[in-house]
């Protein structure tokens, strides 16, 4: 969906709209990577819950656009078979806030947040991903 489609409706993109953008972004990643995230649940919520924000030391819920919860692939073992599934959370309101601030494509922003969280699933730290991102520029 384009920025203009949402502006024409004069309403903010819904949880379902963000979910559709995330599904499209996931469909667009290379199949070899997509296979590695096939068991990861992707959830769209308004904000991170208070407990999560507190654990992460975050005061402003608008600063957290996404979160990976699970055991990174590089750390998985057979003992993990009975645990909760890995999950990626995308937080709608912080994403929309950033979208409004940057004026860029909402689809591109959702993709960026999703790919960042997929990076955590592969075991990359924020610093690792920042270094990789710097190589592209």
UniProtKB/TrEMBL annotation:
Q: Which InterPro entries match?
A: Zincin_1 (IPR010428), Zincin_1_sf (IPR038555)
Tell me which Pfam families the record gives.
Zincin_1 (PF06262)
> Which superkingdom, per the lineage?
Bacteria
In this entry, which stretches build a coiled coil? none
SUPFAM superfamilies, per database record: Metalloproteases ('zincins'), catalytic domain
Stated name of the protein: Metallopeptidase family protein
Organism annotation: Oleomonas cavernae
* Phylogenetic classification of the source organism: Bacteria, Pseudomonadati, Pseudomonadota, Alphaproteobacteria, Acetobacterales
